[in-house]
Amino acid sequence: MLAGEFKIRVEMRQISLRQEAGRLGGIGVCGRELCCATWLSEFKNVATSAARYQNLSLNPSKLSGQCGRLKCCLNYELETYIEALEDIPKIEGPLLTEKGEATLQKTDIFRKIMWFGFSEENTWYPLNVARVNEILRLNREGKKPASLDKDVVEEKAPVEALNSDLQRMDQKYKNKAKKKKKKKKGKGGAPSDQANQGGGGEQRQQQNQQQNQQPRRQGEQRRPNEQRKQNDQRKPNDQRKPNDQRNSGGNQRNPKPDKPRDPQ
Fold first, then answer.
1. Residues 3-39 pLDDT 10s
2. pTM value?
3. Residue 124: phi, psi to the nearest 5?
4. Which terminus of the chain, N or C, has fewer Cβ atoms within 10 Å?
5. What radius of gyration, in Å, describes the C-alpha atoms of the chain?
């Protein structure tokens, strides 16, 4: 080697896609800088089971980051989800009810609510963990509840019983109307049914006829002309003074004095 000549050794080292994304940097879907570019130094393996435990849709476009691999943040809350899933029962098949088979549609892990739906309907029914465990126990014993909410169907009253109640009410009001009609007939003078049966109606008619045939009172028999004559006799016309005499008498009692004449 000549003096002044140096050997340059270049070593090529292969890096992963996540390390390349950290070297380039960027902003994630959360609105912050990438974890691999800021503070994350060790990369752990991320499996699709992490998304299943968290009830996330297995869509690769949503689960993958800028590096093209599964997001590292899927491992951050995985242990918390696994602890919460211990109280939730594992359902291997649909729940059997008299209404039909209900399949699991969704599970709210932290609220411990499970949503089931029937194949014939589009609605989902929320059930708590205790109710789901009870239905599973009944299915193991070979029993089927009436629905997801109730174990036994409520017995409905037969139609005949309802109609009998209405008939009783109708008879009650009909009897009241008949009693009112009987009272009105008794007040108007018409004989009632009981009076006709006992013969009292004929006696009442005879008494009314006798009262009509009796003579009226003396005051009622007087004629109007006779009453006028009696009134005239009480106050004769002679006692009445004409207006002329009254005026003349008044002038005599209080005569006015003559005015004295002036001497000429």
1. 556 667 767 778 888 888 888 889 988 889 999 999 9
2. 0.49
3. -110, 140
4. C
5. 59
CA distance 37 to 20: 9
Measured between alpha carbons, how far is 48 from 72 in angstroms, rounded to an integer?
A: 12
Please, what is the Cα angle at 86 between 84 and 91, to 5 degrees? 110
> CA-to-CA distance for 97 and 145, rounded, in angstroms?
5
Residues 185, 190, 191, 193, Cα dihedral to 10°: -40
User: 120 with 100: CB under 8 angstroms?
Assistant: yes
Number of C-beta neighbours around residue 19 at 10 A: 14
H or E segment to which residue 129 belongs: helix 129-140
Give the C-alpha separation, 74 to 56, whole Å.
10
| DSSP bridge pairs for 108 | 113
Say if residue 235's pLDDT is above 90.
no
